[in-house]
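hi! just following up on the protien thing from before. the input was this:
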Amino acid sequence: MPDARVQSAIDNWASRLISNGVDFNDFVRTTGAIERWEDWLDAWTATADVHRGLAEQELADGHRRSAGEAYLRAAISYHFSKFVWVIDPDRNRRATEAAAQALYDAHALLDTGAERLEAEFDGGLAVGNLRLPETDGAPVALVVVIPGLDSTKEEFYAIESVFLDRGMATLSLDGPGQGEGGFHSPIRHDYEVAVTAALDALADRHELDMKRVGAAGVSLGMYYAVRAAAFEPRLKAIAGVSGPYDMGAGWDSKPSLTREAFACYSRSANDDEARDRAKRLSLEGVADTVQQPCLIVTGARDRVIPWEETKRVADALAHSEWVLYEEGTHVCNNIPFKYRPLIADWLSDRLG
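and the predicted 3d structure came back as:
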């Protein structure tokens, strides 16, 4: 039997891995061979290496599409090798870099319009992947896709496609404490600094209609999106899924892997310091200042952030719509075919 942390990762995040691009057979084969949490990164790195090797062989054979698809599988496997695996921060960083590089290699083959964005802010660097839909040349609306505690821009290729298919551009963003952004700064409660820096960097892009900008945040990224809306008027509409009102609420009942990841990405010395820093991530006195329309979605079976905590956010907002899926788990990853079209259509309707 796997140890408690391995089983927790499987129980809480199986649907997340699969809905974001991990092949089901890879999931079964890889997790079935892991007995100790210490071995999680090695096992998923080995799986990622297989796909990277396939990509390199396909590229050598001149099969660019197949190579790009294999690089996508490599990127998501590298990402999930370290998403809450923080036993060795140096190895976590190397896996983060491998995931980013594999996705850039995939973009080069599958989506030549994709590009990397860097935007400095006080004390940090926001790093984003910008993707543009097929267009007749008219400027398009933009959706800033905001990760949570343990997600990064490399996790969002599938989610981005839902927006792109509806004619909107996407900017998946690594801000403070996230992926490549986390190399430069830890988690910050004032995440709006990263969003503002990214929008400033895109201000003169003729492909984008910067009067039609929205944001979609998942998990802790929902907190970040609502927080950004309170301080960044260029955001015209917000969709959030399974986020907290107060990250410190119910700290001891959160999965141990979540608490360990927060401690690492906030650069806290121990669990007590992490709890204190998590309490700073609260929408008290912030949510009620947001004037933009907001869609708040979650699942009643969420074991990471209880649905009642997400409902607090909807109740505090001046202009919110609330959707609770009775069968939904955290970020409703077990029903992506419901929540993803919902938030994409809702943002498309409001951004025009």
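The two ends are 52 Å apart (CA to CA).
The first strand starts at residue 115 and ends at 121.
cheers
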